[in-house]
């Protein structure tokens, strides 16, 4: 009888179903309150890493400027405007600053005269990207001339300072999350843009008409309309000053490089591809509220997506003549 009473007392000390449900409810509320804070902290860390990547690229460009007394050309090309449907003729600004970024080994694999022959090692070719063009039907935009034909783009070695943590893997290892400021408005990549990086450019950080603290140099490139890889000077590494809010919406829709209507015939398709290949696009980000930019003076700023489009154009143009812009 005594043992039975002791056992009864032990059983009576347990939790009831209502008490367990109450504890679970409290835990659920605490998790719901803490989860946004944890996610916000993680995003803040990713944003800081993204800004650090831009800062590193700024240091590399600064070292290049010190050695050559000029910034690297945004793109090296003879045939303009640059079209992603043509075989690239030269390398872009990222490929030229590899030694300044501590990537001498990768730089030695770059073939500046024949860039498609770069990265010949087996490991670099594991992520091969192929872009084929029909010799007979493809036409240069507006010229009526036949394009160079089929070509293959080799896989690029991955470099962490080119990958924004918030968008890493969305484009692929061979692409850059960051692009140079090419033109203040939508314009095909050419030699007459008003940004700091364009075809065969030779701008200097010390001679920017609007001043280095008032001109943007790099920014987070939109994921739509991808280029051929970080080595080349095309829309993958150069972007234009489109309104950030509109570009962000288009970026979120994940528009494809070529959106061909069903009404386009097979004969018309190559010409449409060439025309679409001239589009460049703007800047966008996976971060909340802001898009990170590198200013020509080396500082990094997060610009609101709601920034006035006219102010953004002024900041990207190296010589708009509008004076100091508050941003």
Automatic annotation (TrEMBL):
Residues 39-309 form the DUF1559 domain. The lineage of its organism: Bacteria, Pseudomonadati, Planctomycetota, Planctomycetia, Planctomycetales. This is Prepilin-type N-terminal cleavage/methylation domain-containing protein. Gene3D superfamilies: Glycoprotein, Type 4 Pilin. It comes from the Bacteria. InterPro entries: DUF1559, Pilin-like. It holds the Pfam family SBP_bac_10.
């Amino acid at each position: 009888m005594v043992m039975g009473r002791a056992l009864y007392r032990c059983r009576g000390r347990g939790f009831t179903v209502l008490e367990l449900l109450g504890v679970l409810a409290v835990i659920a509320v605490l998790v719901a309150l803490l989860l946004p804070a944890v996610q916000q902290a993680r995003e803040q860390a990713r944003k800081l890493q993204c800004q650090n990547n831009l800062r590193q690229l700024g240091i590399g460009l600064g070292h290049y400027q010190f050695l050559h007394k000029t910034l690297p050309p945004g793109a090296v090309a003879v045939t303009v405007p640059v079209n992603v449907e043509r075989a690239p003729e030269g390398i872009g600004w990222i490929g030229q600053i590899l030694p300044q970024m501590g990537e001498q080994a990768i730089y030695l694999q770059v073939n500046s005269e024949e860039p498609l022959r770069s990265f010949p090692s087996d490991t670099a070719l594991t992520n091969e990207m192929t872009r084929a063009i029909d010799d007979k039907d493809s036409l240069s935009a507006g010229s009526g001339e036949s394009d160079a034909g089929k070509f293959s783009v080799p896989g690029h070695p991955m470099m962490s300072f080119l990958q924004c943590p918030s968008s890493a893997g969305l484009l692929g290892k061979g692409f850059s999350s960051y692009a140079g400021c090419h033109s203040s408005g939508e314009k095909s990549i050419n030699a007459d843009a008003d940004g700091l990086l364009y075809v065969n450019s030779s701008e200097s950080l010390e001679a920017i008409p609007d001043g280095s603290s008032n001109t943007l140099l790099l920014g987070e490139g939109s994921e739509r309309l991808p280029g051929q890889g970080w080595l080349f000077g095309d829309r993958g590494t150069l972007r234009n000053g489109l309104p950030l809010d509109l570009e962000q919406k288009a970026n979120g829709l994940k528009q494809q490089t070529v959106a061909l209507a069903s009404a386009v015939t097979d004969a018309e398709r190559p010409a449409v591809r060439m025309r679409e290949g001239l589009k460049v696009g703007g800047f966008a980000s996976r971060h909340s509220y802001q898009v990170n930019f590198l200013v020509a003076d080396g500082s990094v700023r997060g610009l609101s997506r709601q920034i006035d489009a006219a102010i953004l154009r002024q900041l990207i143009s190296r010589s708009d003549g509008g004076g100091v812009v508050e941003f």
